[in-house]
Predict the 3D structure of the following.
Amino acid sequence: MHADDLARRLAEDLQRRIGAPGLAHKQLSLHAAPGALNLRDYIEQLANWVANGHGRGGIRVQIECDEAYVPSQQLIPLTLALNEIVVNAFTHAFAGRRTGEIPIRRGRRPEGLRATVADDGIGMEGAPAPSPQP
């Protein structure tokens, strides 16, 4: 890889990593309920932001999430995790493919909220098969 290409890719990666928490801060400042954010709306915005950054229109992010408000102190760690998982799916799961799906599901559990991110990409050699979700 040429040095200019490597530098460009590193800069794009850094921009994606820094931009996700920035999006969270922006949404918190615009939201009517101080200190909390509607998780469904935010996941949609984050997923669209990541998808637009990758420019791969054939890969769809599907969001299944009921309305829930997340306190601001939980939003940044959640943002970092979701951003990393979705970016990795766009980057690695669809190598050599133009289409695919990344479903993001969030639901309530007795112990709290649960988020599941998957993809229908190429998979990893030697990885165990995913277990069915309840």
Notes: The CA atoms of residues 47 and 61 lie 7 Å apart. The mean pLDDT is 76. The longest strand covers residues 100-109. The beta strands are 36-38, 59-65, 69-71, 100-109, 112-117.
